[in-house]
Amino acid sequence: MTALRYMGWITGCSVLTAFVSIIWQAFIALQTLNRTTVLLTGLLAIEGSLKRTALEPAPKVAIGYGACTDLQINATEFLDRYYGRRIPVAAATTGSRAVVNNEDELLQSFAYYFQNGAAAERVMANSTLFTQLVGYAKVMDKERINWYMGGNAPLMAVRFFMEGAQVLLGAHMSRKLRPLLPKEIRLAGDEIPNDDIHLILEYKAGDKWGPYVAPRANRYILHNDRNNPHLRAVEQLTDALKMYQPQLLVVSGLQMMDMFTFKSGEREARLQQVQRQLTSQPQGTLNHFEMASYVELQLLQQLRHFVLPYVDSLGMNEQELSNLQQVLAHGRTTLATDWNPRIAHTLDQMRQVFISLLEDYEDRSSSDAKRRSISRIHVHTLAYQAILTTAGSKWKNTRAAAAKAALTAHRYVCKSQFINPEAVLQVLDDSFATSAQADAPRMRIGAASPVPCWREYIQYGRHRQRLEVEICVAPVLVCREARKTAGAGDNISASGLAAQL
Ligand SMILES: *[C@@H]1O[C@H](CO)[C@@H](O)[C@H](O)[C@H]1NC(C)=O
Ligand SMILES: *[C@@H]1O[C@H](CO)[C@@H](O)[C@H](O)[C@H]1NC(C)=O
Ligand SMILES: CC(=O)N[C@H]1CO[C@H](CO)[C@@H](O)[C@@H]1O
């Protein structure tokens, strides 16, 4: 009898516990949803403050260089169809080469990156084979191939246009590609018979090719560019700029200048043209350089010489930041790093890059009056946007620019203009340290400040000068189900820049 009563009591207890736990779970879920809604409302309100009045003139932006058509196909379907029985061993030794010369090398290279789910962009040195592959891709079911306008410069140009700017783009384009660009965007460049094509082999997580299974969705890009590496439109853009006089000049697409395309000294000569363009801008024009994934150390060192000293602003993601920081500090490159770095770590790397560039300026500006002192760095990651600007510089609205970039990131990756709080993943905590150094202050992200901003002093140089900077960090409402990731950086960087003019 007592035992039974005892049992009943235990059952009652477990029911109660389960009940409390369900309520608790619901409470937590509701709180998370509530927090997302609060952050979203905050970000949208800050974005709303950016609306230009009808009286304000549209900002003028110029951007180089190059354009291409992206031909997107299903990787496994394409390879099964044309190379069904030729599946190679995936090994780093044969797979990680920078240039692909023939079919065997292509298959080895693809297998290696596919198996690791890593993004890759490779040069196909054999143009006969490249033309053949594009031909194969065109033969594939018309429904399943997709042509898009590609290249950093045109994608950023469209984004600037959508943000209400007047835009001048430096690029050669064919008659087929030009209609894909809004007609209001002015073009400095020639009409060419054929655009460079980028063959984009896309795969999803779990896609199979022979014995290999892709661990995550990604893309393998193959190109054989004739125009883009040579930055053929630079001179025409320089000429057009004399009359146009923009508030902002953006340089992008230099990662296409792979060494295999050039004879000795040729690449330096092209980069000198970029330098000439940057140094011929009046002080009233802000120069921005959009980083990209650079693997070749020599090219990075050339950028440090010809490009970085002449820009006011830099845009990049967390991988590119680590890489640049290593090159500036130690003269070496790094490979893939943490895809979701702590805010404190990213901010410290941003400060290091900023200090390196300020010190270069301090050492050399007396002998080269065209040099510019860096005043802005924007780093975009999956989970947040961080923008550092010199206090009192020409860059306006740093907080709103970070909010805008965060919203663009969400809209791009979710492929939706409408933001649904339930489709969002919270990656950031409520607060973060502003540096990995001991006793660094902490900032809160919440209803009161969805985008925390603060000022601090940066010390640099032999005489330990102090420079006041403003830093803003905006949380990205990360999409639960990513729909599109490649190319997000162009949209994000351009929307952040547009907000600061
Ligand atoms: C280039 O590709 C073609 C077509 O596949 C092939 O016949 C030729 O041998 C390749 N050339 C080199 C140098 O690998
Ligand atoms: C490619 O096609 C295969 C089968 O036809 C499919 O399983 C796979 O998910 C497709 N991949 C992409 C990226 O569409
Ligand atoms: C989300 C978003 O803003 N996406 C845009 C990115 O840029 C392209 C043009 O380059 C637009 O078509 C997208 O709508």
From TrEMBL:
GO terms for cellular component: endoplasmic reticulum. Gene3D superfamilies: 3.40.1190.20. One of its GO terms (biological process) is glycolytic process. Coiled coil: none annotated. GO terms for molecular function: ADP-specific glucokinase activity; metal ion binding. The keyword Nucleotide-binding does not apply. Keywords: Cytoplasm, Glycolysis, Kinase, Magnesium, Membrane, Metal-binding, Transferase, Transmembrane, Transmembrane helix. It comes from the Eukaryota. It holds the Pfam family ADP_PFK_GK. The chain crosses the membrane at residues 6-30. This is LD24362p. The gene is 0670/06.
